[in-house]
Amino acid sequence: MINNVALNNDGILIGTDAKVDGYLGHPGSIAIGKSAYAETFFGVREQILNFKRTTFNKTGYNAAYPYDIDKIDTPIAIGRNSYASSGSVVLGQHTYTGKIGDINIESMKDGASNRVKGIGIYSTVVGTNSFANGTLSTLSGAYSIMTSQYEGEDNEGVNLGKGVANHNLNLGALINGSLNSIESNEGANGAEIDKYSGIANSVVGFANRANNSNGTMIFGAGNEITNSVDEIGNYDVCGQDVEKYPNSVKELAENLRKQYSDGNVGGSTLVFGSGNKVDYAKYANIAGSKNTITGTKDKKSENNIVNGNDNEIIEASNNIVYGTKYRIKKKSPQTQTRSTQDTGTQTEDPNGNILFGHNDEYVDITVKNTIAIGGNIKPNLDNSVYLGTKSMESKEANTLWRKENRDRSYKGYAGFDHIGGIVTVGNDTLTRVIQNVAPGLISATSTDAINGSQLYKYVAKQSINVKAGDKIINVKLGDTLELKGNGIDISVDDKQPQTTQSNTTPQPAPSTSQEHTATFEAKGNVGGSDTFGYKYRDDKGKETELKEGPDGKLYTDEFLQNNEYKNNKWVKKGTTEDSILKDNRYDKNNEKVILSTKYGKIITDVADGIKAKDAVNVSQLNAVRTKVEKNTSDIQQLQKDVKEVDKKSDLALGGVSNAVAMANLPQVMGDKKFNLAASYGYYGGSHAVAIGFSGTNDKQNFIYKLSGSVNNKGNLAFGIGAGVMLGEVNNKDKKIEDLTKENKEIKENLRNQSAEIQELKEIVKRLMRK
Question: Residue 92: how many CB atoms within 10 A of its CB?
Fold first, then answer.
């Protein structure tokens, strides 16, 4: 039943107490439903969003009369007690009284009573008992609301509501879902509503809340963001500078995009998930469930990222958390268990941490600038890196994090006074091997890590010099040194390498490791073993001592002192100029290179040894070498012959398998003219496959055959053959030929008889017709 249907200059009314107000007779307003109310204003907001389709006559602080009222957008209010203002569309019943969002609806008698709840112009509301007080706002869903302190202004610009007098509260806000609220009326947790509250908020989901926040995005259910607000852009949609009013929708959108990208972006908090809470924070990013980020009224938490569940960040900024059960919070003042110089006060804000991992229990993070990657890690040191599940710092007795320990024992090493934290990859009961470490720079000022090969090469170069009388014997680590005699007096002169700091730029380590030597002097009646070395003896008998270089060749001592081996080649020391290798480099197998005792003499004119314990001379050794070389040559030739026999044997075995395969190819037979066949052959470990084709002539007295085969050694075999069959074993073929001829004659007789019978039938038919 429709009551009070009316059509007047202002618009359409349907329903008891339905009402439209145009003031200047604006056409097109629609109010449908009991006590529905559609109201068109004439003010600055309407002028701005008219996009200069008509001119306005400004009559007061916030009033402007349009010259062409047909160019004014009027509202549509559909539903019991619904209210819509300029350019707005409201669809839904409004009968609820009680608390919703941050307001309390005490009565719901008509649409006019809802005016302050939906005074935002150009808003769209679809839903039962839902309200939107925000310009260009959009709401869809039941029991959702956008509230504002703004209730309109008088002709002098005086705010008719409370708090800030700003049209822009909830500007461009969006709600999609039920039981959601964007609140700009009462501040949460003792805060005052900011004049930028609600601007550009987007809430999608169920039972979410955004209070005194802007630039906020909520996707999910049961999330709450409060006091995440800051300046956002600087473009006032409801400003007073007429010259800056936009000429088109596109221009307004472009201006807003520019202001949001070039200017401030508000609280800019993103929450995706369920049960998350943010208070006094901005630039926060949460994905997951039951996470919390909070700051204080005087100091907001900023730039925190949380992805996971059950995490807390309290009064901290610039943290990244991926995982579960982290609690980042300031540590309460108490007696420090760590040196404050090494770890910070730990009562400072725990900022700048990066945490990745899932924890079985809540882990309190009170440090700053620390990275932890792995589950169940409990960092205790600032500026440190914890890698791997359950990694932790070492006990105090096993580490140098205390400055006094470093000063006492390691003052001579580079970087000792700059230690700010630690890197750990395990704990006391779980250690990990660090692999694939590049070689580090070795110098007096280097702080690079070194790898195992560098240590191995360094240790291999270490040696001791043993002085026995006038002799000095060099013994490398790992060699056995035997001392014999009585009354041995040994003293040690340890020549440590210099480790003093230098202000010069670190230079790359030399290609050969530095030698670390210690000299032992033995006094008294001693014996011992000598060392061996290489010497070069020229044609005149002059001997030159040689040393082995890093490339395995032999060089003079002078050459090694003035040259260095870099990038697999020799260069003059301190330059890139190639070294002169002639007369300086020798091969160990050079006939003039001899192996001798370092301090002994070469014995000459030694007769041929005869007895088992006689010395042998070089000629005897050369004779033995000649025989050995001949035997070696004979053995090599024998090996070649054996290989050739093996090769031919393999060829023969492969050929047999080829033949076996080809022999098993079936050939044409019976009354068929052609045959295509394949077969397989095996012999002596060789395998072969064959393919063949055979055929015969019409008389089947000539047969031809073509076949080929390949074995697993890759050897190919081909064959072709033909044959003519002569004579007769029996007269079967003759009989077949006679029967075929007789059959043809019978068929001819049958055809003739059929024709005669047909002719007789025709004669009988003619006679019967007579």
Answer: 22
SS3 state at 761 = helix
Q: Name the 3-class secondary structure at 705.
A: strand
How many Å apart are CA 569 and CA 551, to the nearest integer?
9
The contacts of residue 421 (CB under 8 Å, 6+ apart) are 342, 343, 369, 370, 381, 382, 383, 384, 385
Which H helix or E strand runs over 256? Answer: helix 249-262
Please check whether residues 211 and 333 belong to one and the same domain.
Answer: no
What pLDDT, on a 0 to 100 scale, did the predictor assign at position 437?
87
Report DSSP state, residue 179. Answer: S
Highest-pLDDT range among 225-234, 416-425, 504-513, 705-714: 225-234
Coil, strand, or helix at residue 306?
A: strand
> Does residue 396 share a domain with residue 281?
no
Q: Which of 38-42, 221-225, 278-282, 652-656 is the least confident region?
A: 652-656
**For 159, which DSSP code?**
B
With respect to residue 249, please indicate whether it lies within any of the assigned structural domains.
no
> Is the domain of 172 the same as that of 282?
yes
Q: State phi, psi for 660 to the nearest 5 degrees.
A: -60, -40
Give the CATH number, domain containing residue 140.
2.150.10
Q: For residue 151, give Cα distances in angstroms to 98, 113, 131, 521.
A: 20, 12, 14, 103
Residues 397 and 544 occupy one common structural domain: no
Task: Please state the domain count of the chain.
Answer: 5
Where b means 16+ CB within 10 Å and e means fewer, 535-546 reads: bbeeeeeeebeb
Please report which residue ranges of 28-145 form alpha helices under DSSP H. Answer: 44-48
State the average pLDDT over residues 415-427: 82
Measured CA to CA, the distance from residue 81 to residue 114 in angstroms comes to 8
In this model, does residue 519 exceed pLDDT 70? no
The answer to whether residues 661 and 683 touch, using CB atoms and an 8 Å cutoff, is no
CA distance readout (Å), 571 to 400, 517, 564, 601, 654: 41, 26, 6, 34, 57
Could you tell me the sign of the dihedral formed by the alpha carbons of 94, 100, 102, 108, in that order? positive
Same domain, yes or no, for 296 and 328? no
Beta strand pairing call for 563-566 and 569-572: antiparallel
The Cβ-side half-sphere exposure at 189, using a 13 Å CA radius, reads 17
Flag whether 455 is in a domain: no
Show Cβ contacts of residue 674 under 8 Å, excluding neighbours closer than 6 positions.
668, 693, 694, 695
Separation of alpha carbons 223 and 758, rounded Å: 106
Residue 624's identity, in one-letter code, is V
Q: Which residue has the tokens 């050794």?
A: 621
Tokens 């089947």: give the residue: 700
Evaluate whether residue 126 is within a structural domain: yes
Residues 208 and 293 in one domain: yes
Instruction: Tell which residue, 84, 184, 101, 174, has the closest CA to residue 136.
Output: 174
Strands (E), 33-164: 37-39, 56-58, 64-66, 76-78, 83-84, 89-91, 98-100, 103-105, 124-126, 131-132, 138-140, 145-148
Rounded CA-CA distance 379/359 in Å is 13
Question: 3-class DSSP state for residue 478?
Answer: coil
Q: Which domain does 545 fall in, by range?
A: 532-597
Query: Which among 180, 164, 173 has a CA at the least distance from the CA of 199?
Result: 173
